């Protein structure tokens, strides 16, 4: 993995989607560069395009125009499989609603992407990561047997077990009470530091945003401010 290639670079990105009321301009010319290991929080009012930005940046959605480079590769030059291959082991995602597979235990949920990436010792590695997030006693529990905070910690272990260079997080604590949110956030920042991973995180929580190295404020589909003091 080359440290000198920017994990993420967006240039003049637009996203326009059709709706019954006509085309909606969701992203209207977004530039964003994220350096290796840099932690960026994206804030802004509801509907300003934060989740859409993450979706386009992670290659889950194609921009209408502009370029998205992930680890130096232009995503528009890759098909869906190519984008998935590029992300695998290097970029990970954590969402507000966890997205754990309901028919798999905690350890199987964490091991699954490692197995897909053919990493050796997937299950022992999964167990190590569940220990890091304080869930050694819940290895064989299914998601419905876990609390919201525990499910989010499994999701975090799953995202970070492959030691990605970039983590995308969309409201990573959105469904948690403030005590659980605080412990998940502490854990996330500790584990990111351990991996040296960059973070692109959407949040409505100003306290969480302040923990980032940089705060990017969006309004109406555009970046309107980008600085360490944006939330002040
Ligand atoms: N598939 C779609 N088709 C049309 N419009 C959409 C679609 N998805 C999102 N939008 C619109 O795009 C805008 C941006 O949505 P997005 O979810 O990115 O905002 P957000 O800043 O993440 O909002 P929130 O903070 O409420 O989650 C919203 O006005 C939304 O209604």
Describe this structure in words.
- It is built from seven helices and ten strands.
- It is α/β, with parallel strands linked by helices and 232 residues long.
- It is globular.
- The termini are far apart.
- The chain is 32% helix and 26% strand.
- The mean pLDDT is 90.
- The chain has a domain at 1-82 and 199-227: 3-Layer(aba) Sandwich (Rossmann fold).
- The strands form two sheets. A six-stranded mixed sheet has the order 6-7-8-3-9-10, with helices on both faces. It has a four-stranded antiparallel sheet with strand order 2-1-4-5, with helices on one face.
If classified by CATH, what would the architecture of the domain at 1-82 and 199-227 be? 3-Layer(aba) Sandwich
Helix/strand class? alpha/beta
CATH topology category name of the domain at 1-82 and 199-227: Rossmann fold
Gross geometry: globular
> How many individual β-strands?
10
The number of helical segments is: 7
CATH superfamily of the domain at 1-82 and 199-227: P-loop containing nucleotide triphosphate hydrolases
Oligomer status: single chain
Largest sheet: 6 strands, mixed
In whole angstroms, how far apart are the ends?
35 Å
The strand order across the widest sheet is 6-7-8-3-9-10
Protein name: ABC transporter
Keywords: ATP-binding, Nucleotide-binding, Transport
GO molecular function: ATP binding; ATP hydrolysis activity; transmembrane transporter activity
Domain ABC transporter: 8-232
Question: What is the secondary structure topology, with strand pairs?
Answer:
Elements lengths: L7 E10 L6 E11 L4 E5 L6 H8 L7 E6 L2 E2 L5 H8 L3 E5 L10 H11 L5 H11 L15 H13 L5 E5 L7 H18 L2 E5 L3 H5 L3 E6 L2 E6 L5
Parallel strand pairs: 3-8, 3-9, 6-7, 7-8
Antiparallel strand pairs: 1-2, 1-4, 4-5, 9-10
This protein binds adenosine-5'-triphosphate.
